[in-house]
Specification:
- It is a single chain.
- The longest helix is centred in the last third of the chain and has 14 residues.
- It is globular and about 70 Å long.
- Strand 8 and strand 9 form a beta hairpin.
- Strands 2-1-3-4-9-8-7-5-6 form a 9-stranded mixed sheet.
- It is about 25% helix and about 30% strand.
- It has about 260 residues and is an alpha/beta fold.
Amino acid sequence: MSIRALVWGENVHEQKNKVVAELYPNGMHSCIAESLNSDAQITATTATLQEPEHGLTESRLAETDVLLWWGHAAHGDVEDAIVERVAERVWGGMGLIVLHSGHFAKIFKRLMGTPCNLTWREAGERERLWLTSRNHPIAAGLPDHFELENEEMYGEPFGIPEPLETVFVSWFQGGEVFRSGVTYKRGAGNVFYFRPGHETYPTYYDENVRTVLRNAVKWAHNPAARIADVNAAPNVPVSEALEPIEERGPRLHHDGEEGYR
């Protein structure tokens, strides 16, 4: 059975910016999905902000193994209830790949628990991405480094928690460096942030970038996870202990704040 990937696109710049519309006439989300579908192991579909429930209904997410997220201009328009819905799915084992400006998306900040801020410059400068973990599955088939002739610069400090793994670091023509490919585990879900992807440049047509995304979908897929196993803890009281114990002190959960045994 193929991996079911859902590419979520904000789909705002494509409607308002002529340069973006010409680069991605069917939207960045469709370009990414097309690349993923070139791999026989992946079946990719798309959803956008403008759809009912942002295209992220309970039933749609239930059929999603890995969600890819691109957002920028309308982070605040994503409903909080949908963010929580996605977060619960990630905790239950759905993979999440956050792209470029998605570092500021509600879902990424929700899962990181940090501001996720950074420094940036839009000057169309060269970006050189270096592998820092050659044997990582996300790096399969890639050279030791590759270049994007035009990209937006993101620079350190990057306000994220310490990553589980750093797969890529970037150097920019202006001199800055950035942790451009980092992984996390949230509950049973695998999370990958990948930096390149500014809307006015043809980044998602680059073959190395496409290889990264196909590899990342396979890495993020967790077929062993079950949605019922959120954080692998049932969150229920334990009525019987394995060893004899003497109960002492108040039982606040059972008897109320003023109840004592």
